[in-house]
């Protein structure tokens, strides 16, 4: 029975009355993929390539392909990783810009879906509300809700691949600012940017100093009267060219496809090298980063106050500034930085703890995301609700005690797609292994020696507010493989590509 008291009409050919495991013919699909963003389209490609003949469906709550890159439409939106690593391993990025705008990334994902005939597998406007695993039937029963009508239906699948991202799509995080109701101007969260907003010749205050703010401000500054970035504390920023320094040369010498894979290989390793170097020598990394900012802004700017965080590099993600455009807006006087705390809103702007007031016609709350575990879906195994915060992560992509379920969660210290590709490859290895062994389920189980493992957070040593606010909701990791989410491309390549499937932890059955 559905949560509204109605009984949905099952779309499945399997009515649930048959005892024992459901056969392939009685399932609607072999694999259900949730989300048609960059992860979901990539997962579908790998499934088609590595598991030919498997029936699958992509469940997409919205009416478009692209996920994040379709949802966010604020001015200037762009990648904060180079497209040679944010792009797919199977589809070369051919544009000259290595740091791409949101529309170009959306087009790239849509193109990948069309080229590989993935689009016809997408069920648009179908939101996954709940998923229940039956050990008797050896399958997931998925309850779907149709956008607009609220009509409910069911889908049965052997394996469930969650590619729905890690934050809520319906809202961003906005703190409760005192007096906000008094403000006579416009307040906007970048996650829901109005298409018809005219910000020309307006005074704008952007609250926040993360990637969204640093991306948004140079674009706003082109037309606004002035833009202020209001931050409670600074963020590390690093300037880099918007084009890859050797990409075009390699393309001419090696051809598009070979050059892409060479650059992808180099970029992935440079990302990991830069991250490990910064964590090994944080004082040296801090010095280099601040020297770069001083070089960009010139003498007379208080870099120590506005660009020197209290934390070490890579305890939060570095903000990428392509071609120094953010710094250029400050040098030109079109934008400025204020480091202070908000006392409250006034009718005309924002009053600061220092007593100053920032006049504003528009306030943009670039204050982060609201994280969500597995798309907010209600999960149950044999009638028992699953609390993922009480599970351990298996290789950063499965969960102890939960069968035939994977999650795609990318890197906080590198490009998301690097790990999405590895996860998709591993899921295919897993499905093929079950076919080869004549089994239809796999579930990670804690061994006796694992039961006293210390509980460590899903993401460790990474402290941005949007993460720390929600980490208690996510699965834990232990102190040994395979109960780790290492956030290391080098370690993941070994763990997901080369380590044996049969490891005494992943339990298979029944025939």
Describe this structure in words.
With 511 residues, the chain is of the alpha/beta class. The protein folds into two domains: 24-169 and 371-509, FAD/NAD(P)-binding domain (3-Layer(bba) Sandwich); 174-245 and 282-367, 3-Layer(bba) Sandwich (FAD/NAD(P)-binding domain), CATH 3.50.50.60. Helices cover 28% and strands 22% of the residues. It is built from 13 helices and 25 strands. It has helices at 38-50, 68-71, 83-86, 102-115, 211-221, 247-254, 256-280, 282-297, 303-307, 325-331, 416-437, 465-468, 489-498, and strands at 29-34, 56-60, 122-124, 126-134, 139-146, 152-162, 167-172, 186-188, 203-207, 226-231, 237-240, 319-322, 335-339, 342-345, 349-352, 357-359, 362-365, 369-371, 378-381, 384-385, 393-394, 398-399, 405-407, 441-444, 506-509. Strands 1, 2, 3, 4, 5, 6, 19, 20 and 23 form a nine-stranded mixed sheet that branches. The protein has a five-stranded parallel sheet with strand order 8-17-9-10-13. A hairpin with a 3-residue loop joins strand 21 (393-394) and strand 22. The longest helix has 25 residues, at 256-280. The protein starts with 28 loop residues before the first strand and ends with a strand. The model is unreliable at 1-18 (pLDDT under 50).
């Amino acid at each position: 029975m559905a949560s509204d008291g109605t009984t949905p009409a099952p779309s499945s050919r399997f009515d649930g009355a048959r005892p024992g495991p459901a056969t392939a013919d009685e399932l609607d699909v072999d694999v259900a993929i949730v989300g048609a963003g960059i992860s979901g389209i990539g997962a579908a490609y790998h499934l088609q390539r590595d598991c030919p003949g498997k029936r699958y469906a992509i469940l997409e709550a919205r009416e478009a392909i692209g996920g994040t890159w379709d949802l966010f439409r604020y001015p200037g939106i762009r990648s904060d990783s180079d497209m040679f690593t944010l792009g797919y391993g199977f589809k070369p990025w051919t544009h000259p810009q290595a740091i791409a705008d949101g529309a170009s990334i959306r087009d790239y994902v849509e193109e990948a879906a069309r080229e590989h005939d993935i689009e016809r597998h997408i069920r648009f406007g179908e939101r996954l509300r709940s998923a229940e695993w039956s050990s008797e039937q050896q399958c997931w029963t998925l309850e779907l809700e149709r956008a607009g009508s609220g009509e409910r239906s069911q889908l049965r699948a052997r394996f469930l691949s969650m590619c729905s991202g890690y934050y809520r799509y319906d809202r961003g995080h906005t703190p409760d600012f005192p007096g906000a109701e008094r403000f006579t101007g416009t307040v906007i969260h970048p996650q829901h940017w109005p298409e018809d907003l005219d910000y020309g010749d307006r005074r704008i205050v952007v609250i926040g100093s993360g990637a969204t703010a640093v991306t948004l401000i140079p674009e706003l500054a082109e037309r606004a009267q002035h833009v202020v970035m209001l931050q409670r504390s600074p963020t590390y920023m690093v300037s880099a060219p918007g084009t890859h320094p050797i990409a075009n040369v390699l393309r001419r010498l090696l051809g598009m496809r070979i050059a892409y894979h060479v650059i992808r290989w180099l970029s992935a390793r440079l990302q990991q090298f830069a991250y490990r170097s910064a964590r090994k020598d944080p004082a040296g990394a801090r010095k280099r980063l601040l020297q770069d900012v001083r070089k960009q802004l010139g003498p007379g700017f208080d870099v120590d106050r506005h660009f020197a965080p209290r934390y070490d590099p890579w305890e939060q993600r570095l903000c990428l500034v392509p071609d120094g455009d953010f710094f250029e807006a400050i040098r030109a006087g079109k934008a400025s930085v204020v480091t202070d705390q908000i006392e409250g809103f006034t009718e005309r702007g924002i009053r600061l703890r220092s007593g100053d007031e920032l006049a504003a016609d528009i306030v943009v709350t670039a204050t982060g995301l609201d994280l969500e575990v597995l798309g907010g879906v209600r999960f149950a195994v044999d009638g028992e609700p699953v609390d993922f915060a009480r599970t351990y992560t298996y290789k950063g992509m499965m969960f102890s005690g939960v069968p035939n379920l994977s999650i795609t969660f990318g890197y906080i210290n590198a490009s998301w797609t690097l790990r999405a590709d590895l996860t998709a490859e591993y899921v295919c290895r897993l499905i093929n292994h079950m076919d080869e062994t004549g089994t239809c389920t796999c579930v990670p189980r804690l061994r006796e020696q694992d039961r006293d493992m210390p509980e460590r957070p899903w993401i460790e040593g990474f402290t941005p507010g949007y993460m720390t606010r929600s980490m208690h909701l996510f699965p834990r990791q232990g102190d040994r493989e395979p109960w780790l989410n290492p956030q290391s491309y080098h370690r993941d390549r070994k763990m997901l590509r080369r380590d044996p499937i049969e490891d005494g932890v992943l339990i298979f059955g029944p025939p």
